[in-house]
Amino acid sequence: MSGLVGWAFVLAMALLPVVAPDPYMLAVLTSAGIFIIGAISLNLLLGYTGQLSLGHAAFFGLGAYASALASLGFDIGIGFGMRLRLEPQPVYVGFLSAILVAGVFGWLLGRLAFRIRGAYFVIITICFAQVLRMLALNWVELTQGPMALVGIPPFSLWWPGQGVVDLTSKAQTYWLVLGVGVLAFLVVRQIVHSRIGRALVALRENETLARSVGIRATHYLVIATVVSAGIAGAAGSLFAHYVRIVDPDVFLFIYTVTMVIMVITGGKGTLWGPVVGGLIFGLLPDMLRGSARPEAQWIAYGAAMILLVMFLPRGIVPAVAAWLPARRPATQALPTPVREGVG
Amino acid sequence: MDQALQHLVNGTVLGGTYALLGIGLTLIFGVMRVVNFTHGELYTFGAYMTYALVSLLQLDFFLSLLLATLLGVALGAAIEVLLLRPLRGADIDSVMLAMIGAALVLQNAAMWAWGGVAKLVPTPFGGTPLVLGPVSVMPLRLFVLGVACALLLGFWLLLERTRAGIAMRATFQDSETASLMGVRVGWVSTATFAIGSGLAAAAGALLGPVFMVSPTMGDLVGLKAFAIVILGGLGNLPGAVIGGFALGYVEEFGGGFVSTEYRDAFGFLLIILVLAIRPQGLVALKERVG
C-alpha cells in the first residue's frame, strides 16, 4: 500500500464519526482499534524478529494496571512497616507510566528470554504472563484481586481554549484511539526502516550469519521487545480508561491469542498486516454476536488459525500484494519480505 | 516435622500425575519436534470422558478410567492424522500456531458440550482418610499414585522392551537415519502422539475425581506440563519424570510453608529462575541455546 493510500485510509477513518455517527459502530471500532494497536506492537516481535512471543497480554495487562493505578492512586505496605503512597494522578500521567512500566518489563523479559530460542522461548513468554496474572489475582492490597479495579476515570486531554476536558463522547475516544494507533504505526515503520529493523530482519533470516558480520543479537532483540512492550502498554492504558474496569483476566492467554491471530491473518512482517487482520477479527465477533454463542466465536478463531497456517501461511497482505500487477517492479524484486506491503 | 512428612506424601501423589503429563509432552516433542498445546485439552477430555462414563452411562469406575484413556489415545491419533500429518515439514512456529488453534477448538467445544459448571465424579473410594502414623492420605489419592506409577513403569517397558519402543527411540534420536533403517516414521509419529495424548487423558481421568471437572481445568495443567518439561529438558524422558516430581514437591512445600495463594505460581517462578541462572537448564541440552 502506498503512503497516499495509507493516509487516505486514516482520513476516511477519522471522518467516520462525522459521516456516520452511529455510537454502536464507534464503540466496536474503538475496542477493535485498541487491539489493533496491540497487534501492531506484537508484529514487531512476531513478524520482524521472527520470535514467537506468546506473552504479549502481559505487557497489555501491565499497561492497563499501571495506568489504572496511577490515576486511582494507591497506598500499600512494602514491608518493614513502610508504606508506598501515590495520590491520584491525571490520566495522561497514567498513560505515560503505562508505557514506562511495560517498557521496563519488556527489557526484563527480553534480557531473560533471549538467552534461549525456539520452543523454550515460547514457553517462557507464556509463563511470564501467567505469573503476572497470579500476582494480579493475589496482591489484593494493590490490585483488588478478582474484585477488579473499578471507577477508573475516562480519558482527559488538554484542548486549546478549554483547558483539560474529559473525553466522554464515543467520537472523542474513537479519535484518541485512532491517533495513538497512527502514532504506533509510524513508530514501528520508523524502526523497521532503520538500521535496527535491518538488523532484526537479518537476525530473523539467519541468526548465525548475522552474528558473524557483527550484529549484536540480544541487543537488537531487546530493543525490539522494549518498543513493542511500550506500545502494548499504551494499548493497555487505552483499554483501562475506555472500559474503566481492570481485572486479572487482562493477562489471559486468550488476549495474546487474539493479537496473534490478527497479526498472522493480515500477514506478519508486513506493516499493514496487523491493521487488516485486526479489522477483520475486531469486527467479526460483533457481527457474529447475537447469532452465535461465545464458544462459537472462539471455535471459529481456532479453526481460522489452523486453516491460515495450512493454506495462507504468510497472511492476507502478502497474498494480495502478489495478486496485484507488478506496478512497482523495483519493490517486488527485493528478496527480503520487509518491503512487502510497506509504505 | 509431621507437617513436612504430610507435604512429602501429598507432593509425591501430585508429582506422579505431573510426571505422566510431562512424559507425554516430552515424548511428543522428542519424536516429532511438536510443541503440543493440546496436551491440557487432552487432560480435560480424559476427565470429562470419565465423568460421562461413570455418571451418565453408570459404568464401573475402573472400566471408565480405562475407556477414557483409550478414547484419549483415539483423539490423539485423530489430531495427528488430520492436523499434524498435513503440516509435516512446516516450521515449528507454524505447527505451534496450528496446535494453539486446535486447543482453542477443543476447549470451547468442551465448554459448549458440558457447560461452564464444574462436575463431580463419584468414586467407589470412601471419604475416610487412611492414617499412617503422622500422615493421612485419602485412599483415592493413593490409588491415583499407584496407577500413575504403574503407567510410568508400563510406558518404560514399552520403550525398552518392544520393537515399537525401539522404533520410537530410534526416531527420537535421529528420524532420518531411523527411516533409512526401515522404521516407518509416519506411523511412529502417529503412535507417539496417540500414546502421549493417552497419558495426558489418563492423568485427567485420574485427577478429575480428585478435584472437580471443568472446561478450563486443562489451562493451568497444560502450562504446568510445559514447566515440567523445561525443568527436565524438552525431549528428555527421565528429566520429565524428575521434573514432574520436582514440581509436585515445590508446589506442595511452597504452598505449605510460603504462601497458599501463590501455590500455582511457584512452578513458573522456578522455570524463570532456572533460565535466568542456568539458561542451559538443569539437564543440559545442546539445543537449548542458539
TrEMBL record, chain A:
Location of the protein in the cell: Cell membrane
InterPro entries: ABC_transp_permease, LivM-like
Stretches assigned to coiled coil: none
One of the record's GO cellular component terms: plasma membrane
Signal sequence bounds: none
TM ranges: 24-46, 58-80, 92-110, 119-140, 173-192, 213-240, 252-284, 296-317
A Pfam family hit: BPD_transp_2
Keyword field contains Transmembrane: yes
MF term (GO), any: branched-chain amino acid transmembrane transporter activity
Keywords, alphabetical: Cell membrane, Membrane, Transmembrane, Transmembrane helix
Membrane topology classification: Multi-pass membrane protein
Origin: domain of life: Bacteria
CDD domains assigned to the protein according to its UniProt record, in alphabetical order: TM_PBP1_LivM_like
Protein name: Amino acid/amide ABC transporter membrane protein 2, HAAT family (TC 3.A.1.4.-)
Record organism: Muricoccus roseus
Phylogenetic classification of the source organism: Bacteria, Pseudomonadati, Pseudomonadota, Alphaproteobacteria, Acetobacterales
TrEMBL record, chain B:
Membrane topology: Multi-pass membrane protein
GO molecular function: transmembrane transporter activity
Transmembrane segments: 12-35, 65-84, 96-118, 138-159, 191-213, 225-250, 262-281
Subcellular location as annotated: Cell membrane
Keywords: Amino-acid transport, Cell membrane, Membrane, Transmembrane, Transmembrane helix, Transport
Gene Ontology cellular-component annotations: plasma membrane
Source organism, top-level taxon: Bacteria
Keyword presence, Transmembrane helix: yes
Keyword Transport: yes
Biological processes, Gene Ontology terms: amino acid transport
Similarity comment: Belongs to the binding-protein-dependent transport system permease family. LivHM subfamily.
Protein name (Swiss-Prot/TrEMBL): Branched-chain amino acid transport system permease protein
